[in-house]
Design goal:
homodimer; about 210 residues; mainly alpha; about 70% helix; DNA-binding
DNA sequence: GATGAAATTGACCGATGCGGTTAACAGAGG
DNA sequence: CCTCTGTTAACCGCATCGGTCAATTTCATC
């Protein structure tokens, strides 16, 4: 790719990235034309080909940008250092929302790219995955203290359920084509409070006392 | 559309429907070629145009089939007559799974068609929506007895949370391109049991006794 | 205002794919 | 043999694709 791309103004550079994320997220790789991306970015197709020598290069650059941004934003948020489960979820949510404000379609793009089957790019995508897979979720789960939660609850299922609910909520917004990040944040906040009120063992002392009897 | 389509063998007819659901669910209307649908159905493009005079007709027929099948399957399942919340969810789930076994991509197709923006079909889609919108969810929510659930829980949020979790779970399967309905059923069952164990007020008597003290 | 380099584009190329048509083929029944 | 029905390969005209390039615009420097 042309290094001049990096000396573009941030506004223009992100316009191009977002145009790419958007177009590639709506249709498969093969059916996402460069001309459409150029139009969405407000530049000519020829200029887009000036920055990226061909379609595949742009696509893989977007994928790389996407992975790096996600990892960076998550580690920078401090979510991984939180010891409290819901605290780390809160931080992680904030990080993801911050990212979606900058790149509204980055989430959908990531999923579509991950499952893209076109042989022209699928191999490169899968190869680059190794370095980005994180085991944070599993580790987080191991560290949970069952005493903090209502008795008898299946913690791994609880974790998965919360993950699915977040995805489902996100999906509802995604489907509309544009994303209202503020409304989404409200919904996520409500979900977090709901989970805390339901899953957490509230009266730790009284529970201990009853067990002692 | 050509009435001869209905006198086709069920196997062939459903192969065509499923091919249509699949192709139209993966890309936008404009970028879903008839040739691809014909190939997926195992027939020639010319024959597909013999049954459906043009692309739009096939698309709207698929949409109509999709809406009718969903409504019919849900009412036939008896889910709406169940008084118990989790019972009706169980029945509804079974109905949807049955439908997805017959038409694996009908769910994704429905969502994509609902939000399709191409002016060639979007108007017709939206016009036909009025008759299919059901108010069952809202009614179901009104009938819930707070005494059945753990104290202080926000029932409408609980309902929404469960809905989102189901969607999120479904989404995970959808993204893979093909759908393993059996594995999905297992996951849904586990979710249902989890919700029951968490949301339901288990020891109705003991709880009342404690309150009385 | 002249100049040269860099940014940007309209127009173009060959190849491919699109929706839709048509003429021909295959086979079963009479 | 003919006819009717199901089925398809081949075709048509047009749009779109990835990618190129010569020409134009922009702009800092003199």
């Amino acid at each position: 790719m042309n290094p001049k791309f990096f000396s573009l103004s941030e506004e223009k550079r992100e316009a191009i990235l977002n145009a790419g994320f958007h177009v590639f997220s709506q249709n498969s790789y093969k059916k996402s034309p460069m001309s459409e991306i150029a139009d969405a970015a407000g530049i000519s197709k020829a200029l887009l080909f000036h920055y990226f020598h061909n379609k595949k290069e742009l696509y893989l650059f977007l994928w790389d940008t996407c992975c790096k941004a996600m990892v960076e934003e998550m580690t920078r948020s401090g979510a991984y250092e939180q010891t409290d489960l819901f605290g780390s979820m809160d931080y992680g949510m904030k990080a993801k929302l911050r990212l979606m404000r900058q790149y509204p379609d980055i989430g959908i793009f990531a999923v579509r790219a991950f499952y893209e089957k076109d042989p022209e790019v699928s191999a490169d995508i899968q190869n680059s995955m190794g370095q980005y897979l994180n085991a944070h979720a599993a580790k987080k789960l191991q560290k949970l203290d069952p005493e903090d939660f209502i008795p008898g609850i299946d913690l791994s299922l609880m974790y998965k359920e919360m993950y699915w609910a977040s995805e489902g909520c996100l999906w509802e917004y995604i489907q509309r084509g544009y994303i209202n990040v503020d409304a989404m944040e409200k919904d996520f906040r409500k979900l977090l409070e709901f989970w805390k009120s339901v899953y957490l063992r509230k009266n730790r002392e009284t529970a201990d006392e009853r067990d002692a009897i």
